[in-house]
Amino acid sequence: MARRSDHTREELKDLILDTAWTIVGKKGAEGLTARNLATQIGYTPGTIYNIFKSMDDLYLQVNVRTLDKLLEVLNSKDCNDPKKSPAQNIKKVLGLYMEFAREYRPYWLMMFLHPLPEGRKKMGWYQEKIDRLFEPLENLLEPFFSGREKQKRKMAARVLWSSIHGLCLLQETGRISLVADKVPEAEMVSYLVDTFVAGIKDNK
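and the corresponding structure tokens:
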């Protein structure tokens, strides 16, 4: 078993987080326990709590890593192609989101299904990261709203995101066949965007 002197505090923090990431990838959030993690890194469970305030704190840091990866995907150039219409780019954003949920399934599920620490409301930096998830859609929806309708545009982005999130949840919990047994997911995304955009125009 490794000694405390084998790693600096920062190295140990990185080791714990990297190992936690690997465990979640293989066993899901359920497999990420202090005992299991301690065994993997060769330290005692107490060492983990010397670095992280609690396991919830560690779960949160894993979620932050997932969020950063997702934000990188949603802010890629593929999602803002000037040669495509806003609706086409929106479909790209939502499609990539579904792909991300599939590719990073255990991390995605952990981010949305595992309860956050009680003090999460005081963590403004974490809420800022969440808010950034909506920015790609907010920007792409700009042509459909006037400059005075910023709040409506923000709401529209969140409603649209919540809709695709619902499809993702059905997809990643094995229940997508209940609503999409005979309809390809891509067609559902396309229909959702076309209908949503048409609805915005009709309400003008």
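(Above: one complete record from the training split.) The domain at 1-52 is CATH 1.10.10.60 (Arc Repressor Mutant, subunit A).
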